[in-house]
Structures are given as C-alpha cells and as structure tokens.
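[Discussion] Sanity-checking designs against the backbone

I'm trying to build intuition for which residues belong where. Below is a structure token string of 256 positions. I'd appreciate it if someone posts a full sequence so I can compare it with mine line by line.
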C-alpha cells in the first residue's frame, strides 16, 4: 500500500491539473488549482468541460421554461448562458476564421486578418448564422423535451474534434495559441473521443451514430479547408470547429 500511495497521489494530482487546465482554457468559470504545464495534455478533458457548459445552459433553459417564459425566449437564455460561461471564445474563433478565410487572398494575409481583433462582414454573417441555427435547434430541443441531456451531449461531443484537429494538422503560425498549448497525444485524443461518444449514447445509439457522423464529416471538411487556406490550424480554426460541430450534433439530436 505504501508503494501505491505516492503513485495514486500523483495520478489524482494529474487528473485534477488536467481538469483545471481544461476549464481555464475553455471557460470563464472561477476554478482553483494548478493547471498542466502544457494545455494540450488535458485535451481528453475538453468534452467533460463541454458537458458542464451544456449542463449549465440546459438548466437555465429548463428553469426559464418552467417559470412560464416562451420557448423561444427560454432557448435564447440557454444560448446566452453558454456564451457567458465560455466568454464567447468559440464564437470569436468562428468570426475570425470567416473573415480571414474569405477576406484574404493568400496565407499570410488570411492569418493577418484572423489576428485582427476587428470583425468584418464575413465574421458578422458567420456569427449571425451560427447563433440563429443554435437558437432554432435549442428551441426544437425544448419543444421535444430533454433539453439538458441534448446540451450536455452536444457540449461534450463538439469539443472532442478540436483535439483531433490539433493532432492532425500542424500549427499554421509559430506564435499562435494553437502552437503554444502543444500537441495532444494520441491517447488523449482517443479518450476525448470516447467521452464525447459516451455522452451521445445517453440519447440512444441511432441518434449517437447520426450525430457522430455529422460531427466527423463537419470536422473533416473544416480541416481540409484550413489546410488549403492556411496550411494548418490555429485557435480560431479550433473555435470554429467547435461551433460547427455543435450545430451538426444539435441538428442530429433534434432530427425527427
């Protein structure tokens, strides 16, 4: 027992550090603890953080509906809750990607535009379309019942592909966020995918298969586009990946 004690302690500390790291990177939640030295090592925990974000948003929407608010307004509050919890991190990535990919004519100019804090026409259009799509799908989930589980599953499953993207594509710039957090290990990616799949299975095998297929196709398409446009991935690409995969998963889970 004495030999196992220090090992178990180190494992517990590593697990906690990974969870802290994932929460710090992906949310604005007030967490305490020491994060991992390399954020990518905690990529396996990103779906867990996504599930927490979905749980918070789902509770907000469910409570709003129980208080007598209209379904559309309750869905809007759930969507707003998820944005507040994450600090609009992924939305910002989607907007920057849209501006850069379609506002620049070569890799250098696209990366320059993506780094610019100002938002352009393409970014606005992408944000509006994303918000409208998610609001409509959350509304459908409220009408069908089971909003909390739908948002937990979509929150988890939409964050697993980000690690796949980081493992698959090299950083497009040497001084960006995607490069600074490191590269997740194959094991970390597989554990994250497993957690995302497990979350989807809570809603049944058929729905899980459809959601996983749509999310996988979405991530693959975005990855190929990113490689063609900028030669790799950035933090903005990862944020856009989460947003598009979340829409894909929500669409699958609310399909009739």
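Best answer:
Here's mine. Compare freely.
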């Amino acid at each position: 027992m004495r030999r196992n004690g220090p090992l178990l302690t180190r494992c517990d500390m590593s697990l906690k550090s990974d969870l802290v790291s994932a929460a710090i990177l992906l949310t604005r939640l007030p967490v305490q603890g020491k994060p991992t030295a390399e954020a990518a090592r905690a990529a396996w925990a990103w779906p867990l953080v996504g599930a927490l974000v979905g749980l918070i948003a789902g509770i907000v929407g469910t409570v709003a509906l129980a208080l007598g608010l209209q379904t559309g307004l309750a869905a809007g509050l759930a969507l707003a809750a998820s944005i507040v919890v994450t600090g609009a991190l992924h939305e910002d990535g989607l907007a920057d990607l849209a501006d850069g990919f379609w506002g620049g004519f070569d890799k250098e100019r696209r990366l320059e535009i993506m780094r610019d804090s100002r938002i352009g026409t393409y970014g606005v259009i992408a944000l509006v379309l994303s918000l409208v799509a998610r609001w409509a799908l959350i509304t459908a989930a409220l009408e069908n019942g089971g909003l909390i589980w739908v948002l937990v599953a979509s929150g988890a499953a939409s964050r697993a592909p980000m690690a796949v993207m980081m493992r698959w594509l090299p950083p497009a710039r040497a001084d960006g966020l995607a490069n600074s957090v490191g590269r997740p290990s194959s094991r970390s990616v597989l554990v994250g995918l497993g957690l995302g799949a497990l979350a989807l299975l809570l809603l049944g095998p058929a729905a899980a298969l459809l959601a996983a297929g749509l999310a996988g196709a979405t991530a693959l398409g975005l990855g190929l586009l990113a490689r063609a446009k900028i030669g790799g991935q950035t933090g903005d690409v990862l944020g856009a990946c989460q947003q598009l995969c979340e829409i894909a998963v929500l669409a699958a889970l609310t399909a009739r």
